[in-house]
Design a protein that fits this description.
The protein is mostly beta strands. It is about 10% helix and about 45% strand. The protein has four helices and 40 strands. The strands form eleven sheets. Strands 3, 4, 6, 7 and 8 form a five-stranded antiparallel beta sheet that branches. Strands 18, 19, 21, 22 and 23 form a five-stranded antiparallel beta sheet that branches. A hairpin with a 2-residue loop joins strand 14 and strand 15.
């Protein structure tokens, strides 16, 4: 028993001696030794930097190269760690990460491995930069003549919230948001659809998507399409120049509908809603205003009229306007002209300014000595179909006043001209006053102001003379003093061409039972009788 106890202590001693010897000979700095402290081969000085929009560089230092290499783990914000690298050579002290999201915080950790031994982690973090967003214009399609449907997709928000998205368009290419032609989308989906409206038909439009984030704005690819064509747009103009058998009308092709206008004009009928299958005119092509003369219509007839325009899609019409041609009527005559001669004769002239739309059956002159001649009185018929006609009246009774009217007949009746009058004489009456003063045989006016009296005499052509004038006060007084010899005077007041002391006044002489009185303070606007004179 004592011997066993003795040998047990000897064995323990020998074990301790061997243990001490082994510890003195062991390499404690060998990373492959399971007992090697991890601080011996843990990397140092990790740093991360975004060097481009698509790459982040991770760098570190190493104090021990007796290892297998390095590994890198990564986590995004509060997510779990994930190994993102293969084994990195022990002589390499950087690594590039090319798979990451912009505007995001990432954590990276580097550690060494030696056999089954793993070092401590060194950690760094970086928030990636925000990039411009990316968007694609997927499709554009014309759904009607005035609308286009666009489908777009946000490919990337660039690491920042999308604040605005939509489409822009123009007709020349490379559209931008600087034009007024933009629409925004309120959709929260990455793929969004927008309908552009109020477009012109048959027009090529260039369209692209756009998108905003905090970094700025980006455009998608450009696509183009042509809106569908449609019928032209046209208005009907007002009717003008209305006659018994014609009028003018037209229209305005405002829009060709996106296709060439091949024909335009106006159409009409007597029943309503006229079409090109009724009566029509053809007035060229293309857009813009045009005018048509519609002829050969029936007198006094109601017509329905509207403009039309035709393109490859069909024919469109403006609003219907309704109008009547002028009804037939009795003729209209021009003024009667009378030229008197000193031989108890006169030349009568007149004409037809409007035949009333009917054939002229008879023209001529009628006259009497009472003041209102008709065809039931004395008649000078000149036949049918004449539009300008004249005749001479001869062998008249001297010192007789004749009243004359021209007349014209059609199937609706008789029309007369104005009444003209003249005094048949062989010689002009005269008085001696500073030579010979010839006096018109009758009054030339019975209710005229002073200015009118001057014009009546200065414009008078009678008995072969055109040098008549309004007498001055002395001449008029001389004539009135022998008015019984001259003849034709009334017991009334007559204008002279003499003026009063005021520029607004003139002289008149009154022929009455008391005296032949002169007054030169008469306003020129008062009205009195007129008698014209002339001299050789």
């Amino acid at each position: 028993m004592n011997i066993l106890i003795k040998y047990r202590f000897i064995l323990i001693g020998l074990f301790l001696i061997i243990l001490v010897i082994n510890c003195e000979n062991r390499d404690w700095n060998n990373p492959y030794d399971p007992e090697c402290p991890v601080s011996v081969f843990t990397p140092l000085n990790i740093a991360s930097a975004q060097i481009t929009n698509t790459s982040i560089e991770i760098t570190w230092d190493a104090i021990e190269t007796n290892i297998d290499g390095f590994y890198i783990d990564r986590k995004r914000e509060n997510n779990n760690w994930t190994k993102v690298s293969d084994l990195i050579d022990k002589e390499t002290f950087f690594w590039l990460d090319t798979i990451f999201q912009p505007g995001t915080k990432y954590f990276y950790r580097v550690y060494s491995v030696a056999g089954n031994n793993i070092s401590d982690f060194i950690v760094d973090s970086i928030t990636t930069e925000v990039n411009l967003p990316k968007v694609s214009t997927l499709s554009v399609e014309s759904t009607t003549s005035s609308t286009i449907t666009c489908v777009c997709k946000i490919e990337s928000n660039g690491g920042s919230e999308i604040t605005k998205k939509g489409v822009c368009w123009n007709t020349s290419g490379n559209p931008t948001i600087s034009y007024n032609n933009t629409l925004t989308s309120n959709s929260e989906q990455e793929t969004y659809e927008i309908e552009i409206s109020n477009l012109n038909p048959g027009t090529q439009y260039y369209i692209r998507a756009y998108v905003y984030n905090s970094k700025g704005q980006s455009y998608g690819n450009e696509l183009s399409t042509i809106t569908k064509s449609t019928l032209p747009a046209i208005t009907t103009s007002e009717i003008t120049n209305i006659t018994r058998t014609s009028f003018d009308c037209g229209g305005n092709v405002i829009n060709d509908g996106g296709a060439v206008v091949t024909s335009r004009g106006v159409c009409w009928n007597k029943t309503g809603n006229p079409t090109i299958n009724d009566n029509k005119t053809t007035d060229g092509s293309d857009v813009g205003e045009f005018s048509s003369e519609i002829k050969n219509l029936e007198m006094g007839t109601l017509y329905y009229i509207r403009a039309y325009a035709t393109n490859q899609n069909g024919t469109s019409y403006g609003d219907v306007v309704i109008n009547s041609t002028i009804e037939a009527s009795i003729p209209t005559l021009s003024n009667l002209d009378i030229t008197t001669f000193l031989s108890c004769s006169a030349r009568l002239e007149s004409g037809i300014s409007d035949d009333g739309g009917l054939e002229i059956l008879e023209t001529g002159f009628c006259w009497d000595t009472l003041g209102n001649p008709t065809i039931d009185d004395n008649l000078i018929s000149l036949g049918s179909g004449l539009y300008n006609f004249s005749t001479d009246m001869e062998g008249l009774i001297e010192h007789t006043t004749y009243y004359v009217r021209a007349y014209a007949k059609n199937n609706l009746g008789v029309q007369y001209s104005n009444i003209g009058k003249f005094h048949a004489i062989n010689n002009l009456a005269s008085v001696s006053y500073n030579g010979t003063l010839y006096v018109y045989p009758i009054d030339n006016g019975d209710d005229n102001d002073w200015y009118e009296a001057l014009n009546i005499c200065s414009n008078l052509e009678a008995y072969g003379f055109d040098d008549w004038y309004l007498p001055d006060a002395n001449e008029l007084g001389t004539i009135i003093s022998v008015e019984e010899t001259i003849g034709g005077f009334y017991i009334d007041c007559y204008w002279s061409n003499s003026q009063g002391s005021e520029s607004s006044d003139a002289c008149r002489i009154c022929n009455n039972e008391f005296s032949n009185s002169m007054n030169c303070s008469i306003p020129k606007t008062d009205c009195y009788r007129v008698r014209c004179v002339r001299r050789d």
